[in-house]
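Following up on my earlier message about zinc ion. Here are the inputs again, as you asked, copied directly from the submission form:
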Amino acid sequence: MQILTIATRPYNDQKPGTSGLRKRVPAFQQPHYLANFVQSIFDTIDAAPGATLALGGDGRYYNRDAIQVILKMAAANGFGRVLVGQGGILSTPAASCVIRKYRTHGGIILSASHNPGGPDGDFGIKYNGSNGGPATETVTEAIFAASKRIVHYRIIDAPDVPLDMPDEYKMGDMVVSVIDPVSDYAELMESLFDFGAIRALLSGGFRIKFDAMHAVTGPYARDILVNRLGAPADSVMNAVPLPDFGNGHPDPNLTYAHELVDILYGKSAPDFGAASDGDGDRNMILGKHFFVTPSDSLAIIAANAHLVPGYKQGLAGIARSMPTSAAADRVAKVLGIPSYETPTGWKFFGNLMDAGKVTLCGEESFGTGSDHVREKDGLWAVLFWLNILAVRKQPVETIVSEHWARFGRNFYSRHDYEGVQVEAANGVMKLLKDSFTSLQGAQFGHLQVKLCDDFSYTDPIDCSVSTGQGIRILFVDGSRIVFRLSGTGTEGATLRIYLESFEPDTSKHHLDAQEALATLIGIALQISELRKRTGRDKPTVIT
Ligand code: G1P
Ligand code: ZN
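Thanks, got it. Here's what our run produced:
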């Protein structure tokens, strides 16, 4: 088969964001757009001839077309084998699992995570290295640089490979192995959790509902929760991955997973509810009429890890992204293990996990995971909770309130203003930065500002420095407000405000978070002039 060298010109907008390159589908459909980026990856990662690559995606619109292009380019760029998920499917954590298990050179994941899909929806591509984790910033910067000087890419002239059954095919000199996307991942889960105990819980009248949101986790949840753990088939809803996610927004939060939320807050609600996102790395945990914030979930998982077989030997440390609440830090302190605060994005956890410094990681954005892979992992978090519930035999709400009683409660909320005009959002951020001096020491009612800064992080392993990672307003009593611009959106700007305060007094733990944070919310709106500058009078999403 013939290797073609195709002349091309750079696009100048192929800078990876928080998690890979994300654009609208029509942007990816521009001539050579996808190929340019893929060649930039191959030119950067410098794989040895004959190397193996993992490949799969969340099944969204354009997934199958992109897989065929990438296979042909991998063959033309000297790869010896590509492990591709059947139907082009691999959830993000499953891709990480496959990269690690088969020791591939790395992997390409096609996903725009929780962003809507379809012909006018979003598409995305990212590269994960041989540790199974998202490429570090150094690598993504190098890919971006390569994309700006690209003059040609290599692709072979070959027919498409059928993807619908596990099988092997030759493409030029390269082997394409179409693999079952679920089994390696499911086996890993069985090695970590007490499936016997969870099976007993589920057969004893404990009812669960998992919402796959028409996205990638459907087949995984069916295999694990229904086939392996014996949950009734209707425990998994929206289980068939659709290219447009059923026109939904596959983001597991109280706003977008409302179908599940209505069930868990309705009459005869199940005991446990959970949802995952487009590519399977996020999770939302619900009890009967009860929502567990992702920050609390991380802390509770850490505090109960000794009950779970894969973690009973102890945790090396816990890492959380900066905007995530400090609830996990309190657990780390009691356990006598280190805690780390990193910038937003899973890629910052990889070095810490590779160095054996942390076992658990989490983000307030419904991301929780451990060193079993190098991505956050939605179903893993669900199984962790089920394992805890199987051992403790208490309702979700009781487990959470007992946790607060022991460690105190970190009231926490995130307010998102989506699709804001870019200039308005930048204006808010600039105003805040310009106000650092006047805010320092300022008094707002009983709250006094202790420090404001733009968060920067020095990686303790490779000493790389990441600046501009979010504006922090820290108060003397430990409360804080964080402002950040999203790095994953594709339309306008998304401004995120993160709010946190600590409450040791058990008699106040039942309060609603918005009530408890009302003063901070008021301060945030006042100092940012957000309403005036963006024309918005309320957030798009509150979590
Ligand atoms: C968002 C989340 C962040 C997460 C990322 C990828 O990024 O806030 O925690 O790692 O999605 O799932 P953002 O849009 O805020 O840049
Ligand atoms: Zn995701």
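One observation from looking it over: The domain at 185-407 is CATH 3.40.120.10 (Alpha-D-Glucose-1,6-Bisphosphate; Chain A, domain 3). Hope that helps, and feel free to reply on this thread.
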